[in-house]
Amino acid sequence: MTACPPTATTDPTASGTPRPASADLLRSVFRRHAAGVAVITARGEAGPVGFTATSLTSVSAEPPLLSFGIATGGSSWPVIATTGHVGVHILGEHQEELAATFARRGADRFGAPTSWREGPEGVPVLDGVLAWLVCRVVARIPAGDHRIVLAEVVHGDPTGTGRPLLYHQGRFTALRD
Length: 177
Prior knowledge:
This protein is mainly beta. It has helices spanning about 25-30, 75-80, 95-105; strands at about 35, 40-45, 45-55, 55-60, 65-70, 85-90, 115-120, 125, 130-145, 145-155, 165-170, 170-175. It is globular and about 50 Å long. The N and C termini lie far apart (about 40 Å). The mean pLDDT is about 90. This is Flavin reductase family protein. InterPro entries: Flavin_Rdtase-like_dom, NADH-dep_flavin_reductase, Split_barrel_FMN-bd. Keywords: Oxidoreductase.
């Protein structure tokens, strides 16, 4: 008995009409992709900087490498462009307001109620997160209006408690049981 090859569907409701590539298309597709929420921090000469990221990716276990994207027009980019180390914080579902603060333009991201301390390599480390890492930046790769930052893990703490904060359909959300 042999399996029949799959056949193309003729049902027009099975898939939408293809659209040409655009920023809007990319945003629309990725709104459907649930992503974990992280905050990236760094120490700048004028003080700490940070931003909310949903582009965090594990790259390699040996050596331990990760990557994240950052817009070159963002307020944190000038520091990230030159710093040697960054902090990577995995947020819990109880930290929706913290994620929103670090995503908001013009916000005092490190003022009250944000709780943080200076961590290894002088990197700002946020309190109460599920996990954090301090990483050495090894590359900044041009990618359109962003840079992909490749960083090697040098310190961290995975012992926070709780469940992860997610980003889906343009809003912060939590896992369901």
